[in-house]
Amino acid sequence: MGTEIKRKTRRGKRGGDTKRQQDDAETVNEQGSATSEPTVASSSAYVAPPMDSAAAPFYIDTQAATDSAEAQAEKISPASYGLVNPDLQKYLKSCEDMLDDQKFGSTEDRDIFINNVYSETKNFELQLTTDHEASRILEKLFWISNDYQIKWYFAITREDTIRLVVHRFSSHTIQTLLLLSAIALEREMRGEICDFADTGDDDETSGPQAVRTALPTFEELVLGLAKALAPQWSYLMANEYASHILRV
Q1: What is the value of pTM for the model shown?
Q2: Which pairs from 163-166 meet CB under 8 Å and 24+ separation?
């Protein structure tokens, strides 16, 4: 009899322990449910932002400009003046060998050759800067041109500066003109550059050497370029073609 009571007591103790464990488990579950309920509620309340409000893939400082970079990009498109005449392309290609070799009989022969190239390309200056082959040949021509011819061509590009600097090919011609202008600035400061063409030809329509009106100084051209680019500075810094001009 005593043994049966003892067994019942032990069994009761174990049963009480089991009951307490079950109660504790239920309490933990209730606490966990109470804790997780706000998370579920907050997840269901979350609303994804619209796609058009997504952040830009890279940061652009637009405080220096009146418009955002996107607005600037919409307003600027690369220059386009149509295809270069095939005959003119062929002529420039024939001149490239002379520009590479520079085997002129004399300085006078070289000057005549350069003047002839400028005469043949007159009224097509901006169009040539946007052509792949022609723009390369122009750059070679610039390096053996005199200061007045560089200044004359640089002045022409002011008609469409922004669209030229963002163009794949003309941006390189602008860069070459800018480099040569920086070199010529030193001579200009010493008063060694004439603002008028030095020519004895009576034909006033033969090319840049026959222009009788004064051109802007190299200082004015460089400062004018910087002033023209300033409103779109942030956009041009991120542009793959204009950025190398800003580095110059």
Answers
A1: 0.63
A2: 163/76, 163/77, 163/78, 163/79, 164/79, 164/126, 164/129, 164/130, 165/229, 165/236, 165/241, 165/242, 165/245, 166/76, 166/77, 166/78, 166/236, 166/239, 166/241, 166/242
Give the ranges where 144-203 is alpha helix by DSSP (H): 147-157, 161-165, 170-189
For the record, the structure tokens of 226 come out as 């910087």
The whole-number pLDDT of residue 58 equals 34
Q: Which of 181, 170, 166 is nearest to 243 (CA)?
A: 166
In terms of Cα–Cα distance, which of 137, 208, 149 is closest to 180?
149
Mean pLDDT split into 10-residue runs, the chain, 248 residues: 48 50 54 46 47 40 47 70 91 93 91 96 92 94 94 90 90 93 89 62 47 78 91 86 82
> CB–CB of 218/178 below 8 Å?
no
Residues in the chain: 248
